[in-house]
């Protein structure tokens, strides 16, 4: 996404672009009537000209006060040598002349003196020429893939698909060009490639794959430009699956990912290299919009070491992807305003190219003691723009003129492979999270964000149920489709460039509908797959099967509809034992499942009779307790002012109260408004389930309801908050704030494949104003803490409103936080419309946000992950079919290790699963046959489910390690 406005576009011209119209030493169009120059200036460069059969250091002579039209003579004195140059007359006038200096490259600073005789006068100038290196600059042609934004998605897709055809034609035309000028095209997103191949006939497909194998077309592994910190580990896997699968089918490998526009990425990406094969990551973020000080990472390549230390991802953040547009794109037709744009030929390929931008850019790198002799620029003509067909000719002419910097048309993979070959032992190795900046836009579509997060969790559960039941006919293709919908909702483009300025524009409406459909389709397809995983040949009357899709025993509440529990309120397990149950005020039946084994199913029957009661929870007035927690609400606000756990006398709630609704008009913390005038009533009276329902008028909303729930004997406080939002287009934010009373607390939270401590595990110059959580946030000191979890709301702030005051400074990095002060206040940032483009101008209607709290003693990473998993993947109740008990064909004993994902192998033999070690030390994992299964075979595997190395059934998983394995029977 270009950001800021040029005509209808949101792009701010890159601030380093200067003198873009000055080309080589030749003529620049001018009116002869303009005055002649009055003085000259010398500008040293890092460049070498091809001159008289060899490289000569180049200095640019600039004419001031006008242009030079007449012939002249230039005398040079440099490094003990003299030379003279005849300047021919130029009727068009020249603004710059490139001087080739005499002699060999200098090894120290040397002064150049020139004397120009022209039009009967003499002009003198001097400059210092410093030593430089020979430079190789890679240029990566692409068109930034926004799925929408510039036009409706169908139009956008047609442009990118046409670019592939054009690229193949240009590559064929330039195949005999000198090396470096031969054309290559990066498709950027597999989303484009998949649609291209689906629409292509057999001949066109063969032509495409032939171009790929020749290196004319480059495939990067990512399905799109994704907000990676908003994606679960399973989503990250599927983000790379289609690309690596296509490559495998055609005998090639995909090892690189390219991320355009999006500033930042999750540290979790470094943990997947062994599984996905993606070992190179080229980032080309936005130039200025909402990026904080992330630009400080430009041209600072490093090996991004995984939390385990066992994997490395070569990362390079290059210049903003908009360089090409900055220099040339605004000199050609504005593709945002053309409904069906085509590649544009100016007839002058070298006009508006890299001279003098590149010389200035490389000089700045050299002044910063940049240790490498290579770098990369991307070359795109705007978002979703046609290809630049003249690039190969511009590069060819450049390399003919300049010995250095030498240009090479490249791909992300080829560039980073060359970097690694040249500098492998010199690249720094760095650990930490590159905390993303743009995830705040997720809260502009809170309902759809929650839908997608829940669909992702249910997809994992559907795969787990298929695996534990040992069902045949696993519909892998249907799962892939559902995963793509989930991933594409997390793609960084949400809507139109004018979604905020003109939200009623039919194109803006259409583009959001397309985006929204990813969430709705993910929900629909996931529910269908979940139902399919649960069903069998014959349903059993008055019985419910409950599935545990995690590798931990579970004691949890299950709720089933009134229609499935009409036979009575008494629930028994498959041994005939009575189970605690309660008919809820909604007509649903709730019952308590106790110690359901890992990866298993058990049957429960619904019978006539009264509900069985064992332990009791109580509710009176504004108080709830369940034998573990005591909760008290403020009568005026409905906030939780007392949260106490048995065995700990401390009140874990700050005096302001937990679960506060707050509304910020604009971004002003001084104008914050709260929900008051609460009406509190008892909703569930117990004895198993008790809850209080708080109804309040709320600023920015039609209504607000908050339900606070406890279950007898369950170590969890559940909050269910429903906001019926008013559509308001003025800037605003909605939070639910949790100021915990935990002195000296540290804040930790889950990321894909692991967890981090805020600040301590973040790279410098990354986002500290808000965070994106996977499954849990933990606020703890050395003695006690709270683990906080929300399946629906991914954004949170540490402290009160660190985003306040930021609207006016989104391009000003000094207003972005550079340090996270540890505080025990977590603000769940559930809604906002603070963007000026792309994201929604307003949202309305009811949205529900669920939160789960668990108090504990000292922080335990393993316990926090198990708790987060349980909240995101609750026990699943379904109509009873098949055997009364079912379980996975093996058991997994692995203290400190959790199973991130499990599903049947695509070849029908066994299951695939990923293991994550939460501990700082190696952890023992033991697999054993279960329920009479045959002996096990175990292999280390990868994303394509290839058996790489056979393993023993007992092995160690490295500290913080991630491993994908294939388990089957003999």
Automatic annotation (TrEMBL):
The keyword Hydrolase applies. Residues 624-787 form the Glycosyl hydrolase family 38 C-terminal domain. Keywords: Hydrolase. Signal peptide: none annotated. The lineage of its organism: Bacteria, Pseudomonadati, Bacteroidota, Chitinophagia, Chitinophagales. PANTHER family: ALPHA-MANNOSIDASE 2C1. GO terms for molecular function: alpha-mannosidase activity; carbohydrate binding. It comes from the Bacteria. GO terms for biological process: mannose metabolic process; oligosaccharide catabolic process. It holds the Pfam family Glyco_hydro_38N. Gene3D superfamilies: Glycoside hydrolase 38, N terminal domain (3.20.110.10), Golgi alpha-mannosidase II (2.60.40.1180), Golgi alpha-mannosidase II, domain 4 (2.70.98.30). The keyword Hydrolase applies. Residues 136-428 form the Glycoside hydrolase family 38 N-terminal domain. This is Glycoside hydrolase.
